[in-house]
Amino acid sequence: xxxxxxxxxxxxxxxxxxxxxxxxxxxxxxxxxxxxxxxxxxxxxxxxxxxxxxxxxxxxxxxxxxxxxxxxxxxxxxxxxxxxxxxxxxxxxxxxxxxxxxxxxxxxxxxxxxxxxxxxxxxxxxxxxxxxxxxxxxxxxxxxxxxxxxxxxxxxxxxxxxxxxxxxxxxxxxxxxxxxxxxxxxxxxxxxxxxxxxxxxxxxxxxxxxxxxxxxxxxxxxxxxxxxxxxxxxxxxxxxxxxxxxxxxxxxxxxxxxxxxxxxxxxxxxxxxxxxxxxxxxxxxxxxxxxxxxxxxxxxxxxxxxxxxxxxxxxxxxxxxxxxxxxxxxxxxxxxxxxxxxxxxxxxxxxxxxxxxxxxxxxxxxxxxxxxxxxxxxxxxxxxxxxxxxxxxxxxxxxxxxxxxxxxxxxxxxxxxxxxxxxxxxxxxxxxxxxxxxxxxxxxxxxxxxxxxxxxxxxxxxxxxxxxxxxxxxxxxxxxxxxxxxxxxxxxxxxxxxxxxxxxxxxxxxxxxxxxxxxxxxxxxxxxxxxxxxxxx
Amino acid sequence: xxxxxxxxxxxxxxxxxxxxxxxxxxxxxxxxxxxxxxxxxxxxxxxxxxxxxxxxxxxxxxxxxxxxxxxxxxxxxxxxxxxxxxxxxxxxxxxxxxxxxxxxxxxxxxxxxxxxxxxxxxxxxxxxxxxxxxxxxxxxxxxxxxxxxxxxxxxxxxxxxxxxxxxxxxxxxxxxxxxxxxxxxxxxxxxxxxxxxxxxxxxxxxxxxxxxxxxxxxxxxxxxxxxxxxxxxxxxxxxxxxxxxxxxxxxxxxxxxxxxxxxxxxxxxxxxxxxxxxxxxxxxxxxxxxxxxxxxxxxxxxxxxxxxxxxxx
Lengths: 537, 313
Fold this sequence. Notes:
The complex is a heterodimer. By secondary structure, chain A is of the alpha+beta class. Chain A is 34% helix and 21% strand. In chain A, the strands form 8 sheets. In chain A, strands 1-10-9-8 form a 4-stranded mixed beta sheet, with no helix packed on it. In chain A, helix 12 links the parallel strand 18 and strand 19. Chain B: It is found in: Cell membrane.
């Protein structure tokens, strides 16, 4: 018995040794292969799966992936300039209600089919069929009909004139173009698509749900072709795991502020072994003030809140210097936003004076100011998962308590938070702007929409009716000068009534290993400009 | 035995029906419905009219009982419906992910059994030896570590520093080891103690004394008497742990980036994807009940007192 056991044991050991040496060889081989292919493949992490990449739908389709595959008719350039994309030229009728697009000649989808006016019409009509999901976007709800003029000319008629129409066509979704072969039987893309076939710079060549996606350069792309041949997106939901993957060399790049907390970015930066880069302003971190409920319905209280805070502390100590202090609702580089509306300096004494004058007085034995037996108290709900928001609010809580305002912070589950905010159950809450091409027009427009956060911000102020009229006017206006004047009035009103507290201009940032070259950002905060990156030879 | 089986199967069906009720109605108690959640996730400022239109289309505004009946009717035909968010078939999605999580959980279970039986038996037999004392301290240390932390330590040392195993992801048997080990290490201390205590108790029993008196070899006594005696409580509690292992796999799946059922459910919970959540609760409920059923039968086979209890009545 013992002999038999010994025999089995030695045989197993032999097998094990043989297996190990084999494995070593094959390991060496794969690492060599990897080295050979490494120079044309960029690997990056993403927190979520890219989804089915349906160009006409929202989550779980990831925006950056939609942008890699599909093209818009027109695109958003620097400073909001509308640039040709699938359409090379467009004419707008005098009344601003009719847009005729001339399509680019020779554009082919990744299945080899050509872009035609008929195909563009089919795409737009597919979006119109699913109106309930898209009606929030006026570029969709405004469309009256789509007409094919000839092979490469398509005319879109709007129900009313709407100046941001072109701007909204540049959005990543839902108005980008899918090839005919991508449409499912029945033609509706509201549920699913047959295949993700676009005309964009990349082609989806491999996809394992929840694990990774591989994009290969589209060599027939009509625009400037990507320099890198292949991009692999690895789904890594945890930020610590992402950092370890970067350290091990499993990924080359972590892109976007959604993937790394400011402090994690800084730690990687200090290591000195990686390239790090911060973008310019992409949107604004903003606190919205509810003007419809007490005590923030009083302008004086809103003003006091504005004065009693130090942006520098927040930017330096909480945001680790990765964002710039914001003095206005929109970054001056955004369309119609380069306006001097003035600013509220950090001045605690001024804040106290304003509150005293408004009748909110410190009473002996009471920790907070009071008026008519009411304590000066504001409630601020926030999403429990937003750690940066939590830190900023904790700072503000201590700052505002210093001037005698009691600040109640309420952490909520994400969905419940949204529900409360939509119901107006807040005095203040975070309401970041959306970035271009949504800003400024869409952000402003939601301020007059029913059940919207922005409505609570402006409807309790003294200028509400004038504000609403001006917003309605500005999006219908066809005259550039009139629009500029109207925007100036709107933004000035927002400032004077102290509707929002701008904190900082949000940025994107990235960390990459040294093999990735020409790292940069686009103005679009949801785009990853993979086509512009290069890899070291 | 037959009667025992029939009774157990009947109570299994009843329990599953209960699970379906809980799955369906409890989810609807949570504030915010899928339509509202959908727009919130996408940060779309949708109007009430467009939300109502979608609710109408999806049948979310029908009476709850008819929605429940409709769902059950389809479930009987093994059709679990389509996800509101991804539009994909829930049954297929759940099953494909379930196997991944099941793979981790069952490998972890294997680790638990190997670790706890060897260490537990050894420390009982060599009571109060250096080995016994050493394991006692180390298992208390491991048991008090949070699993995500343990996971990071394992990843850092084994995958990043030594480069022995892949850091994360899914696909080969190597990907299975660290996640299962993380899960197993968290649970094993409990079983090591359970086996040790239970075996020491058995040692005081008269039948062990008689076995010794009969002159049986010590390792025969350990295998046939002592260890066998610890099996029924061990099996029952392992069966209960199976559900816990599936639940614990969620954290491990996130840290190790494994596309298992845990991550899917976490996302679906955020999106209030009713159909997915209902399907998941039903699936896990079924699994839980089935495992306990198997454990009961195994116990009945090992210990005749259990199956005979029913026969006498």
